Protein backbone atom coordinates (compact mmCIF):
# COMPACT_ATOMS: atom_id res chain seq x y z
CA UNK A 1 0.00 0.00 0.00
CA UNK A 2 1.43 3.37 -1.02
CA UNK A 3 0.21 6.41 0.91
CA UNK A 4 0.67 10.01 -0.19
CA UNK A 5 1.18 12.41 2.73
CA UNK A 6 0.50 16.15 2.53
CA UNK A 7 1.57 18.61 5.24
CA UNK A 8 0.54 22.28 5.04
CA UNK A 9 -0.33 23.23 8.63
CA UNK A 10 2.06 26.17 8.95
CA UNK A 11 4.99 27.40 6.89
CA UNK A 12 6.27 24.17 5.34
CA UNK A 13 4.75 22.47 2.33
CA UNK A 14 5.74 18.81 2.61
CA UNK A 15 4.77 15.87 0.42
CA UNK A 16 5.90 12.27 0.62
CA UNK A 17 5.08 8.77 -0.55
CA UNK A 18 5.25 5.93 1.95
CA UNK A 19 5.08 2.24 1.03
CA UNK A 20 3.91 0.00 3.90
CA UNK A 21 5.45 -3.21 2.52
CA UNK A 22 8.67 -3.03 4.52
CA UNK A 23 6.81 -2.10 7.73
CA UNK A 24 4.44 -5.04 7.32
CA UNK A 25 7.42 -7.35 6.80
CA UNK A 26 9.13 -6.12 9.95
CA UNK A 27 11.88 -4.18 8.17
CA UNK A 28 13.01 -0.75 9.48
CA UNK A 29 10.21 1.76 8.89
CA UNK A 30 12.39 4.28 7.07
CA UNK A 31 12.81 1.82 4.19
CA UNK A 32 9.23 2.60 3.25
CA UNK A 33 9.98 6.22 2.34
CA UNK A 34 9.80 6.24 -1.46
CA UNK A 35 10.14 9.94 -2.07
CA UNK A 36 9.72 13.29 -0.36
CA UNK A 37 9.75 16.96 -1.24
CA UNK A 38 9.70 19.92 1.10
CA UNK A 39 9.55 23.67 0.72
CA UNK A 40 10.04 25.95 3.70
CA UNK A 41 8.63 29.47 3.62
CA UNK A 42 10.91 30.61 6.43
CA UNK A 43 12.76 33.19 4.33
CA UNK A 44 9.47 34.69 3.15
CA UNK A 45 8.13 35.23 6.68
CA UNK A 46 11.43 36.34 8.20
CA UNK A 47 11.03 40.03 7.42
CA UNK A 48 7.71 40.05 9.31
CA UNK A 49 9.24 38.38 12.39
CA UNK A 50 6.74 35.52 12.26
CA UNK A 51 4.42 33.54 10.02
CA UNK A 52 1.89 35.65 8.06
CA UNK A 53 -1.12 33.31 7.57
CA UNK A 54 -2.36 34.74 4.28
CA UNK A 55 1.10 34.59 2.70
CA UNK A 56 1.49 31.04 3.98
CA UNK A 57 -1.75 29.87 2.33
CA UNK A 58 -0.87 31.48 -1.00
CA UNK A 59 2.56 29.92 -1.02
CA UNK A 60 1.17 26.45 -0.23
CA UNK A 61 -1.10 26.83 -3.28
CA UNK A 62 1.89 27.75 -5.44
CA UNK A 63 4.05 24.87 -4.23
CA UNK A 64 1.84 21.88 -3.67
CA UNK A 65 1.49 20.65 -7.25
CA UNK A 66 5.17 21.03 -8.27
CA UNK A 67 6.15 19.28 -5.02
CA UNK A 68 3.83 16.39 -5.83
CA UNK A 69 5.49 16.08 -9.25
CA UNK A 70 8.91 16.12 -7.60
CA UNK A 71 7.88 13.46 -5.07
CA UNK A 72 6.48 11.16 -7.75
CA UNK A 73 9.61 11.58 -9.83
CA UNK A 74 11.88 10.82 -6.90
CA UNK A 75 9.81 7.73 -6.06
CA UNK A 76 9.64 6.72 -9.74
CA UNK A 77 5.98 6.27 -9.14
CA UNK A 78 2.82 6.99 -11.12
CA UNK A 79 -0.25 8.61 -9.59
CA UNK A 80 -2.09 5.36 -10.28
CA UNK A 81 0.16 3.52 -7.78
CA UNK A 82 -1.15 5.56 -4.85
CA UNK A 83 -3.57 3.74 -2.57
CA UNK A 84 -4.68 6.54 -0.27
CA UNK A 85 -4.08 10.18 0.57
CA UNK A 86 -3.24 11.39 4.08
CA UNK A 87 -3.25 15.09 4.91
CA UNK A 88 -2.79 17.23 8.01
CA UNK A 89 -6.22 18.03 9.37
CA UNK A 90 -4.99 20.23 12.23
CA UNK A 91 -3.97 21.90 14.39
CA UNK A 92 -2.55 24.77 12.39
CA UNK A 93 -3.43 27.86 10.39
CA UNK A 94 -6.94 27.48 8.96
CA UNK A 95 -6.14 28.80 5.48
CA UNK A 96 -2.96 26.76 5.22
CA UNK A 97 -4.75 23.60 6.36
CA UNK A 98 -7.49 24.20 3.79
CA UNK A 99 -4.97 24.19 0.96
CA UNK A 100 -3.66 20.76 1.95
CA UNK A 101 -7.06 19.24 2.70
CA UNK A 102 -8.69 20.61 -0.44
CA UNK A 103 -5.81 19.40 -2.57
CA UNK A 104 -5.88 15.97 -0.91
CA UNK A 105 -9.65 15.59 -1.23
CA UNK A 106 -9.74 16.74 -4.84
CA UNK A 107 -6.90 14.47 -5.87
CA UNK A 108 -8.48 11.54 -4.03
CA UNK A 109 -11.87 12.28 -5.54
CA UNK A 110 -10.39 12.28 -9.03
CA UNK A 111 -8.50 9.06 -8.46
CA UNK A 112 -11.31 7.43 -6.40
CA UNK A 113 -9.02 6.97 -3.39
CA UNK A 114 -9.72 7.05 0.34
CA UNK A 115 -8.43 10.03 2.33
CA UNK A 116 -7.39 10.21 5.94
CA UNK A 117 -7.04 13.36 8.04
CA UNK A 118 -4.06 13.23 10.40
CA UNK A 119 -3.49 15.18 13.60
CA UNK A 120 -0.26 17.10 13.07
CA UNK A 121 1.07 16.07 16.49
CA UNK A 122 0.42 12.41 15.74
CA UNK A 123 2.72 12.85 12.76
CA UNK A 124 5.46 14.21 15.05
CA UNK A 125 4.71 11.57 17.68
CA UNK A 126 5.20 8.59 15.36
CA UNK A 127 8.18 10.01 13.43
CA UNK A 128 10.78 8.50 15.82
CA UNK A 129 9.68 5.08 14.51
CA UNK A 130 11.38 6.18 11.26
CA UNK A 131 14.72 6.54 13.05
CA UNK A 132 17.58 4.08 13.39
CA UNK A 133 16.71 2.90 16.90
CA UNK A 134 13.02 2.03 16.97
CA UNK A 135 11.14 2.40 20.27
CA UNK A 136 8.81 -0.37 21.42
CA UNK A 137 5.33 0.51 22.69
CA UNK A 138 4.57 1.72 25.28
CA UNK A 139 6.85 4.76 25.29
CA UNK A 140 6.85 8.32 26.56
CA UNK A 141 6.94 11.03 23.92
CA UNK A 142 8.33 14.46 24.66
CA UNK A 143 6.73 16.60 21.98
CA UNK A 144 8.40 19.97 21.66
CA UNK A 145 7.47 22.17 18.73
CA UNK A 146 6.73 25.81 17.97
CA UNK A 147 3.11 25.43 19.01
CA UNK A 148 3.14 22.61 21.57
CA UNK A 149 5.00 21.17 24.52
CA UNK A 150 3.53 17.92 25.74
CA UNK A 151 4.42 14.69 27.47
CA UNK A 152 2.42 11.76 26.15
CA UNK A 153 2.11 8.11 27.03
CA UNK A 154 2.00 6.26 23.70
CA UNK A 155 0.64 2.72 24.08
CA UNK A 156 0.16 2.05 20.37
CA UNK A 157 -0.91 3.68 17.12
CA UNK A 158 -3.88 5.89 18.04
CA UNK A 159 -3.50 5.18 21.77
CA UNK A 160 -2.19 8.39 23.29
CA UNK A 161 -2.60 9.71 26.79
CA UNK A 162 -1.69 13.31 27.56
CA UNK A 163 0.35 13.40 30.79
CA UNK A 164 1.27 17.07 30.88
CA UNK A 165 1.64 20.16 28.72
CA UNK A 166 2.67 23.78 28.76
CA UNK A 167 0.38 26.21 30.52
CA UNK A 168 1.58 29.13 28.38
CA UNK A 169 4.39 29.34 25.80
CA UNK A 170 5.57 26.26 23.90
CA UNK A 171 9.28 25.39 24.07
CA UNK A 172 9.83 26.42 20.42
CA UNK A 173 7.95 29.64 21.04
CA UNK A 174 10.25 30.39 24.00
CA UNK A 175 13.26 29.80 21.71
CA UNK A 176 11.82 32.05 19.02
CA UNK A 177 10.88 34.87 21.42
CA UNK A 178 14.28 34.72 23.11
CA UNK A 179 15.93 34.80 19.70
CA UNK A 180 14.04 37.98 18.89
CA UNK A 181 15.19 39.57 22.16
CA UNK A 182 18.78 38.75 21.21
CA UNK A 183 18.36 40.26 17.76
CA UNK A 184 18.22 36.96 15.86
CA UNK A 185 15.97 36.20 12.90
CA UNK A 186 12.75 34.19 13.11
CA UNK A 187 12.56 31.27 13.74
CA UNK A 188 15.51 31.47 16.06
CA UNK A 189 15.62 28.04 17.70
CA UNK A 190 18.61 26.72 15.79
CA UNK A 191 20.40 30.09 15.98
CA UNK A 192 19.98 30.29 19.79
CA UNK A 193 21.31 26.77 20.04
CA UNK A 194 24.40 27.67 17.99
CA UNK A 195 24.93 30.87 20.00
CA UNK A 196 24.62 28.95 23.30
CA UNK A 197 27.46 26.66 22.17
CA UNK A 198 29.78 29.69 22.31
CA UNK A 199 28.50 30.90 25.69
CA UNK A 200 29.47 30.17 29.30
CA UNK A 201 27.02 28.49 31.65
CA UNK A 202 26.15 30.08 34.98
CA UNK A 203 26.64 33.80 34.26
CA UNK A 204 22.90 34.43 34.65
CA UNK A 205 20.50 32.94 37.17
CA UNK A 206 17.46 32.27 35.03
CA UNK A 207 14.39 30.51 36.46
CA UNK A 208 13.63 26.86 35.76
CA UNK A 209 9.84 27.20 35.82
CA UNK A 210 7.85 24.39 37.45
CA UNK A 211 10.95 22.25 37.87
CA UNK A 212 9.74 21.02 41.23
CA UNK A 213 5.98 20.98 40.64
CA UNK A 214 4.46 17.54 41.21
CA UNK A 215 2.58 17.50 37.90
CA UNK A 216 4.04 17.03 34.43
CA UNK A 217 3.08 20.48 33.16
CA UNK A 218 5.41 23.21 31.90
CA UNK A 219 5.50 26.99 31.80
CA UNK A 220 8.01 28.97 29.76
CA UNK A 221 6.70 32.51 29.63
CA UNK A 222 8.52 33.48 32.85
CA UNK A 223 11.81 32.31 31.39
CA UNK A 224 11.35 34.59 28.38
CA UNK A 225 10.51 37.50 30.72
CA UNK A 226 13.68 36.80 32.72
CA UNK A 227 15.69 37.02 29.50
CA UNK A 228 14.03 40.35 28.72
CA UNK A 229 14.93 41.65 32.20
CA UNK A 230 18.60 40.76 31.63
CA UNK A 231 18.59 42.45 28.22
CA UNK A 232 17.14 45.66 29.70
CA UNK A 233 19.66 45.60 32.56
CA UNK A 234 22.55 45.20 30.15
CA UNK A 235 21.31 48.01 27.93
CA UNK A 236 20.83 50.31 30.93
CA UNK A 237 24.40 49.59 32.04
CA UNK A 238 25.66 50.86 28.67
CA UNK A 239 27.30 47.50 27.97
CA UNK A 240 25.78 47.30 24.51
CA UNK A 241 28.19 49.98 23.24
CA UNK A 242 31.09 47.52 23.36
CA UNK A 243 30.69 45.03 20.50
CA UNK A 244 32.69 42.22 22.06
CA UNK A 245 30.95 42.64 25.45
CA UNK A 246 27.61 42.55 23.65
CA UNK A 247 28.56 39.38 21.75
CA UNK A 248 29.60 37.53 24.90
CA UNK A 249 26.53 38.84 26.75
CA UNK A 250 24.30 37.37 24.02
CA UNK A 251 26.15 34.05 23.96
CA UNK A 252 26.15 33.67 27.77
CA UNK A 253 22.48 34.61 28.03
CA UNK A 254 21.59 32.14 25.25
CA UNK A 255 23.56 29.50 27.17
CA UNK A 256 21.70 30.17 30.43
CA UNK A 257 18.38 30.16 28.62
CA UNK A 258 19.09 26.81 26.97
CA UNK A 259 20.43 25.37 30.25
CA UNK A 260 17.21 26.31 32.10
CA UNK A 261 14.83 25.12 29.43
CA UNK A 262 16.69 21.84 28.88
CA UNK A 263 16.86 21.19 32.63
CA UNK A 264 13.07 21.44 32.92
CA UNK A 265 12.37 19.30 29.85
CA UNK A 266 14.78 16.60 31.01
CA UNK A 267 13.52 16.58 34.60
CA UNK A 268 9.84 16.31 33.60
CA UNK A 269 10.66 13.55 31.11
CA UNK A 270 12.43 11.61 33.86
CA UNK A 271 9.39 12.10 36.08
CA UNK A 272 7.00 10.84 33.38
CA UNK A 273 9.15 7.74 32.83
CA UNK A 274 9.26 7.05 36.54
CA UNK A 275 5.51 7.52 37.02
CA UNK A 276 4.56 5.21 34.15
CA UNK A 277 7.37 2.68 34.49
CA UNK A 278 8.25 3.16 30.79
CA UNK A 279 11.84 2.53 29.75
CA UNK A 280 11.69 4.26 26.39
CA UNK A 281 11.52 7.95 25.62
CA UNK A 282 11.11 9.50 22.19
CA UNK A 283 11.82 13.10 21.33
CA UNK A 284 9.72 14.73 18.61
CA UNK A 285 8.92 18.14 17.13
CA UNK A 286 11.12 20.97 15.88
CA UNK A 287 12.91 21.55 19.21
CA UNK A 288 13.82 17.86 19.05
CA UNK A 289 16.53 18.94 16.61
CA UNK A 290 18.20 20.78 19.49
CA UNK A 291 21.68 19.52 20.17
CA UNK A 292 21.83 20.47 23.89
CA UNK A 293 18.48 18.79 24.61
CA UNK A 294 19.53 15.64 22.77
CA UNK A 295 22.80 15.32 24.62
CA UNK A 296 21.20 16.04 28.04
CA UNK A 297 18.55 13.37 27.44
CA UNK A 298 21.16 10.85 26.35
CA UNK A 299 23.17 11.49 29.53
CA UNK A 300 20.04 11.17 31.68
CA UNK A 301 19.07 7.95 29.89
CA UNK A 302 22.44 6.38 30.69
CA UNK A 303 22.21 7.44 34.32
CA UNK A 304 18.56 6.51 34.84
CA UNK A 305 18.45 3.41 32.65
CA UNK A 306 16.07 4.44 29.92
CA UNK A 307 16.60 4.49 26.20
CA UNK A 308 16.13 7.66 24.16
CA UNK A 309 14.99 7.51 20.55
CA UNK A 310 15.30 10.38 18.13
CA UNK A 311 13.68 10.89 14.77
CA UNK A 312 16.17 11.64 11.99
CA UNK A 313 17.02 15.37 12.43
CA UNK A 314 15.47 16.29 9.07
CA UNK A 315 12.16 14.74 10.20
CA UNK A 316 12.01 16.74 13.47
CA UNK A 317 10.61 19.87 11.85
CA UNK A 318 7.43 19.74 9.76
CA UNK A 319 7.52 17.45 6.74
CA UNK A 320 5.30 15.28 4.55
CA UNK A 321 6.95 11.98 5.50
CA UNK A 322 5.53 11.97 9.02
CA UNK A 323 2.02 12.55 7.66
CA UNK A 324 2.33 9.82 5.02
CA UNK A 325 3.71 7.46 7.67
CA UNK A 326 1.02 8.24 10.29
CA UNK A 327 -1.62 7.86 7.57
CA UNK A 328 -0.14 4.52 6.54
CA UNK A 329 -0.16 3.17 10.11
CA UNK A 330 -3.72 4.40 10.62
CA UNK A 331 -4.84 2.72 7.40
CA UNK A 332 -3.17 -0.55 8.46
CA UNK A 333 -4.79 -0.38 11.93
CA UNK A 334 -8.17 0.00 10.31
CA UNK A 335 -7.69 -2.66 7.63
CA UNK A 336 -7.24 -0.03 4.93
CA UNK A 337 -10.75 1.14 5.58
CA UNK A 338 -10.63 4.27 7.68
CA UNK A 339 -11.23 7.51 5.88
CA UNK A 340 -12.29 10.99 6.74
CA UNK A 341 -15.65 12.27 5.54
CA UNK A 342 -16.16 13.80 2.10
CA UNK A 343 -16.23 17.42 3.30
CA UNK A 344 -13.11 19.60 3.29
CA UNK A 345 -12.75 19.21 7.02
CA UNK A 346 -9.97 20.85 8.95
CA UNK A 347 -9.47 21.32 12.68
CA UNK A 348 -7.31 24.42 13.19
CA UNK A 349 -7.57 24.16 16.97
O1 LIG B 1 7.69 21.13 14.70
P1 LIG B 1 7.99 22.43 14.05
O2 LIG B 1 8.72 22.44 12.73
O3 LIG B 1 6.70 23.27 13.82
C1 LIG B 1 5.62 23.24 14.69
O4 LIG B 1 4.82 22.28 14.61
O5 LIG B 1 5.57 24.18 15.52
O6 LIG B 1 8.82 23.28 15.14
C2 LIG B 1 9.31 24.56 14.87
C3 LIG B 1 10.03 25.07 16.11
C4 LIG B 1 10.43 26.53 16.02
O7 LIG B 1 10.02 27.19 17.19
C5 LIG B 1 11.96 26.47 15.92
O8 LIG B 1 12.62 27.60 16.46
C6 LIG B 1 12.26 25.23 16.71
O9 LIG B 1 11.22 24.32 16.36
N1 LIG B 1 13.56 24.65 16.39
C7 LIG B 1 14.59 24.56 17.28
C8 LIG B 1 15.68 23.98 16.59
N2 LIG B 1 15.28 23.74 15.30
C9 LIG B 1 13.99 24.15 15.20
N3 LIG B 1 14.65 24.91 18.57
C10 LIG B 1 15.81 24.69 19.21
N4 LIG B 1 16.91 24.16 18.64
C11 LIG B 1 16.89 23.79 17.33
N5 LIG B 1 17.98 23.25 16.77
ZN1 LIG C 1 5.06 20.61 13.70
From TrEMBL:
Cofactors demanded by this protein: Fe(2+)
EC number, as in UniProt: 2.3.1.234
Residues that hold substrate according to the record: 143-147, 176, 189, 290
Keyword annotations from UniProtKB, A to Z: Acyltransferase, Cytoplasm, Iron, Metal-binding, Transferase, tRNA processing
Any single GO BP term: tRNA threonylcarbamoyladenosine modification
Gene Ontology cellular component list: cytoplasm
Catalytic activity line of the entry: L-threonylcarbamoyladenylate + adenosine(37) in tRNA = N(6)-L-threonylcarbamoyladenosine(37) in tRNA + AMP + H(+)
GO MF annotation terms: iron ion binding; tRNA N(6)-L-threonylcarbamoyladenine synthase activity
UniProt-listed InterPro entries: ATPase_NBD, Gcp-like_dom, KAE1/TsaD, Peptidase_M22_CS, TsaD
Keyword Ribonucleoprotein among UniProt keywords: no
Record function comment: Required for the formation of a threonylcarbamoyl group on adenosine at position 37 (t(6)A37) in tRNAs that read codons beginning with adenine. Is involved in the transfer of the threonylcarbamoyl moiety of threonylcarbamoyl-AMP (TC-AMP) to the N6 group of A37, together with TsaE and TsaB. TsaD likely plays a direct catalytic role in this reaction.
Family from the record: Belongs to the KAE1 / TsaD family.
HAMAP family: TsaD
Listed name of the protein: tRNA N6-adenosine threonylcarbamoyltransferase
Species whose genome carries this gene: Polynucleobacter brandtiae
Gene assigned in the entry: tsaD
Amino acid sequence: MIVLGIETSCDETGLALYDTTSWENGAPAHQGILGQALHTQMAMHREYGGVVPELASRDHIRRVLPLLEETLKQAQCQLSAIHSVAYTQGPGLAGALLVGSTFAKSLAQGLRLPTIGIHHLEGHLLSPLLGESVPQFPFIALLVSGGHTQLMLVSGVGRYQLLGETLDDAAGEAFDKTAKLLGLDYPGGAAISALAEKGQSGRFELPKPMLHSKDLDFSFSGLKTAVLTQVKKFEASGGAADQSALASFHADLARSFVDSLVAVLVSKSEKALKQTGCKHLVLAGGVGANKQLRSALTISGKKNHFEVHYPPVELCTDNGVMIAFAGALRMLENNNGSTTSGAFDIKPR
